[in-house]
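Appendix B. Raw example, untouched.
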Amino acid sequence: MRKSFHQQRPRHHCAPQARKSDALVQFLQKTSVDPHERLRLETSGGPLSMRIFDLISPIGKGQRGLIVAPPKTGKTTFLKEICLALAANHPEVKSYCLLIEERPEEVTDFTRTVTGEVVASSSDHDTEHHIQTANKLLERVIGEVNEGKDVLILVDSLTRLARVHNRDARSGKTLSGGMDANALEVPRRFFGAARKLEEGGSLTIIATALIDTGSRMDDYIFQEFKGTGNLELVLSRKPAEMRLFPAIDISASGTRKEEKLFTEQEFEAIHKVRSYLAGLNPIDALKKLIETLPKYPTNADFLKNF
C-alpha cells in the first residue's frame, strides 16, 4: 500500500500556465472516443452497492463521472468501495484517490483502507498546497496516459477543488454564491481531462459533487458541472435517513451511451429492469433492488432471471 504524500508543502504556487506542457499538448492532440471498455465493480461476496452501481451507472475506461451527494449519504464509503473493487477486478488500471480539504483523520483512514495511491491535501494545508497537489497529480497521470496506460482518479471532492480555486481567483467579477468568474476554469479542465483515447490509454475521473449543504456556492458549482460528465450517480438523503444503503436515486442516475458498455443481451435486460423500477416510487425501487439482488449470486444471474 502506498502512503499519502500530503505532508510535503510546495514552495511555489502553480497557477494556470499560458503555455501548455509538451505532455499536455500530446494528450490533447489524440482522439477522444466514447468509453466502451467496461470497468466492473461487482466482486464475489463484495458490497451490494457496487452491484447496483454496475447496473444503474456502469463505468467504462475514460468515463467522466459525478457522484452527486448530499451530506451523510455514504459518499466516502462509496469511494472506498470503488477503489477496492477496481483493484480486485482491474489491476491493469492505476488508481489514485485525490482528497482535497479533507479532515486529516479521513486522509489517514483512506490511506489505510484503499489499495490505490492516496494523494491528499488535508484541511490543515493552505490554498496554494491544495492547488499544487491537484495540478501535480493531473500532470503526472497525463504522462501515464500518453504512455498508453489506463488511469483512474477518484476525487473527493470536485466541490472543494472549486472552492479553493475560488479563494485564489482574482478576476474581480463575482457571480452567484460569491463565486469568482474565473474560479471554475481550472477545475473544469481537470474534470474535462477524463477521456478514452483511440490511440490507447484512458483517464477515468469519478468525482463527488456536494449538494444540499446550505451553501449557495456549492449549489452553483454543482449546476456548472452538471451535464459536463457522461455519468451521474445520485445519492439521496431520504433513503439514507431511513438507513437504506446504498442511498441511490435510481431514476436520477445513469450513464450516457451505456449500450456501448453492455452486450446486446445485457442491455435489453437492464432496459427491462429500469422500465419496471420506473413504475415504482424512488424508495420502493431502491428497496426492490436491495431485496432482490442478494437472491442471485451475480448480476448476470439476476439479469438472466428477470
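End of appendix B.
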